[in-house]
């Protein structure tokens, strides 16, 4: 996705302040896939009801736009009922369980971001259980990603005992995926986030995060799913903010907001750095 006209004008202004060579350094901010068909980490069957796919992506977008958690919960409940009904029998059991895990995960995020911890935790726990069931016959990348995404949320919400016993699983499984699939989009973004967001004492390394993300963008000219691209851009912005480079951080947060203008995190971070 090309930067908006406003973003480009801002970059041009910064370049004029810092020298004409800066214009040539306009970054590749990544692009959207032509068509999305992996709402839970793997392609759905060709005969999947388009309405179900649309409802899954609509739920995701509502969460990233920070819409009311009650509205998101209502949409998620409808999706879960559909996935648990006979009308979903055309799906493989793995796909059905991964979609259920995804619906629970994004609903948990909506509650968590609204400060409703007591409602978020059961959703994340349900997401973990569905992910485990999806791997009953053996581990696979989409199942591992579904599990560690929810575990990472729970590690921030539950007690120290839970963090100590489950926290190490997240980098271990992320590395396991990347060892097999070095260009795996979601795993690489999760790994970069583990370096961009925490402080140095907890393993943070913004420069490493940027290097990982730059490599990932170069390796995926075909693009990213919308939430992946937002996470990537927000992660870039966070890493540059940690390094004190407000101009580049603002560029990336603006690029993230081009995807989800109502996202509170990107908007508040852009405001915080004076962008």
Give a short summary of the structure.
The protein has 13 helices and no strands. With 275 residues, it is mainly α. Mean pLDDT is 92; it is low at 7-24.
Task: Describe, in plain words, how this protein is organized in 3D.
It contains 13 helices and no strands. With 275 residues, the protein is mostly helical. It has two domains: 50-181, Serine Threonine Protein Phosphatase 5, Tetratricopeptide repeat, CATH 1.25.40; 186-275, Serine Threonine Protein Phosphatase 5, Tetratricopeptide repeat (Alpha Horseshoe), CATH 1.25.40. The longest helix is centred in the middle third of the chain and has 21 residues, at 93-113. The chain is globular and about 55 Å long. Residues 7-24 have low confidence and may be disordered.
């Amino acid at each position: 996705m090309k930067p908006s006209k406003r973003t480009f004008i801002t970059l041009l202004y910064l370049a004029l302040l810092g020298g004409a060579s800066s214009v040539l350094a306009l970054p590749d901010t990544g692009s959207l896939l032509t068509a999305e068909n992996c709402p839970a980490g793997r392609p759905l069957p060709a005969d999947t009801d388009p309405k179900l796919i649309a409802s899954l992506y609509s739920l995701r977008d509502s969460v990233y736009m920070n819409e009311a958690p009650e509205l998101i919960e209502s949409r998620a409940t409808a999706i879960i009922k559909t996935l648990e009904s006979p009308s979903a029998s055309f799906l493989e059991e793995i796909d059905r369980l991964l979609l259920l895990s995804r619906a629970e995960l994004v609903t948990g995020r909506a509650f968590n971001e609204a400060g409703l911890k007591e409602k978020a935790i059961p959703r994340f726990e349900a997401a973990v259980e569905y992910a485990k069931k999806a791997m009953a016959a053996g581990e696979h990348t989409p199942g591992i990603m579904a599990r560690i995404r929810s575990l990472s949320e729970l590690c921030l919400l539950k007690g120290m005992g839970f963090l100590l016993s489950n926290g190490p699983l997240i980098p271990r499984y992320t590395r396991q995926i990347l060892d097999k699939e070095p260009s795996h989009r979601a795993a690489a973004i999760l790994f970069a986030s583990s370096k961009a967001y925490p402080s140095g004492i907890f393993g943070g390394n913004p420069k490493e995060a940027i290097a990982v993300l730059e490599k990932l963008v170069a390796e995926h000219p075909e693009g990213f799913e919308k939430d992946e691209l937002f996470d990537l851009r927000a992660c870039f912005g966070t890493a540059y903010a940690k390094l004190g480079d407000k101009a580049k951080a603002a560029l990336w947060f603006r690029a993230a907001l081009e995807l989800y203008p109502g996202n509170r995190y990107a908007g508040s971070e852009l405001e915080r750095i004076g962008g």
